Amino acid sequence: MDPSELSSDVRPMKTPEPGRRVLNDGPAQAAGLVVVGLAASALFAPWLAPIDPQKLDLGNLLATSSWSHPMGTDQIGRDVLSRLIHGARWSLGGALLVTVIVMVVGIGMGAISGFSRGPVDLVIMRLVDALLAFPSLILALAVVAAVGPGLVGVLIALASVGWAGHARVVRGLVLSLREREYVLASRAAGGSASDIICRHVVPHLVAPMVVLATLEVGQLILALAGLSFLGLGAQSPTPEWGVMINEGRAFLFRAPRLMVYPGIAITLTVLAFNVLGDRLRDILDPRLEPVANDVSACLRHGR
Fold first, then answer.
1. Which of 290, 132, 103, 297 minimizes the C-alpha distance to 215?
2. Which of 41, 75, 130, 167 could anchor a disulfide with 109, C-beta 3.0 to 4.6 Å?
3. What is the pLDDT of residue 22?
4. Which residues, 6+ apart, have CB-to-CB distance to 255 below 8 Å?
5. d(CA 294, CA 303)
6. At what angle do helices 202-229 and 151-177 cross, to 10 degrees?
7. Dihedral angle computed from the Cα positions of residues 71, 243, 155 and 133, in that order, rounded to the nearest 10 degrees
8. pTM here?
């Protein structure tokens, strides 16, 4: 056989692209389907819900499952299934909004701190240390007490205290990136700090921050539901999952489904985002050269 023919048949194996690896991963597929379904429920809730979530059916109070009410009704005759579907808009939408704010602020502050060093780094990190010195839920409660109860107040509170952990993670990654050859070359060529951060540092943070944001959504959904359950978040009659659990508390033994159904929705949503984030971390880590080890350590040891 001609050696040239042999060499043409022997080709180096290529590592599958991250997108293809995600599509070929069973747990990631299952979690992704749940997330897509939740997103669809939130976007198309008015068309998917069989009944208006605020409509009262006073002739069917605490009714069990039926054709007209597949998951029954609550204490004032509202359809539970419709409220669950609309609840995805409030719970998931609120968590995504806070995640975007937290990631933007956290990435910006962490990148500036890690790249600038000196007094700027000192001031930002002392602020981060002050915020992380207290449990985030306690700080969120303090902010809600100052702003006032309600969904807007809770979103402001969670965004105000949530960025600090991300800033610390980003700072650690930037400290390893700022000494790379391409960053040093750009600095030697006279590139400004803002230009280097935007063109050479932030792009390398996108993949790990996507993983961290996915995990953050699940935690924020739990926080939103918990604060709403305590009466500090969304208020009745808003069809938010935490509010639904709080309203069903008085009927735990008579109609436990009023707490079980929204509890299952919260559990499945958080589980789906956590599994998706964990699988994305494992899939993307080998592609994060040269910061794979730094990202893995930061994500595995938390904030």
1. 103
2. 167
3. 60
4. 62, 72, 74, 75, 248
5. 13
6. 150
7. -120
8. 0.79
CA angle 239, 277, 300 (to 5 degrees): 125
Classify residue 51: in a domain, yes or no: no
pLDDT at 27 over 60: yes
Q: Rounded to whole angstroms, how far apart are CA atoms 235 and 151?
A: 7
- Cβ-contact 48, 54 below 8 angstroms: no
Structure tokens at 121: 């780094």
pLDDT at residue 18, as a whole number: 56
Q: Which residues neighbour 70 within 8 Å (Cβ) at sequence distance 6 or greater?
A: 50, 81
Q: In this structure, is residue 17 part of a structural domain?
A: no
Q: Which is nearest to 246 in space by CA: 267, 224, 268?
A: 224
CATH of the domain at 177: 1.10.3720.10
Return all residues near 78 (Cβ < 8 A) that are at least 6 apart: 53, 54, 55, 56, 57, 237
pLDDT tens per residue, range 76-135: 889 999 999 999 989 999 999 999 999 999 988 988 888 887 888 899 999 999 888 888
pLDDT at position 11, please? 42
Are 97 and 47 in contact by the 8 Å Cβ rule? The answer is no
In a domain, 59, yes or no: no
147-162 pLDDT, tens digit each: 888 888 889 889 888 8
Into how many domains does the chain fold? 1
User: 202 is in which domain, residue-wise?
Assistant: 29-40+74-300
Does 162 map to a domain? yes
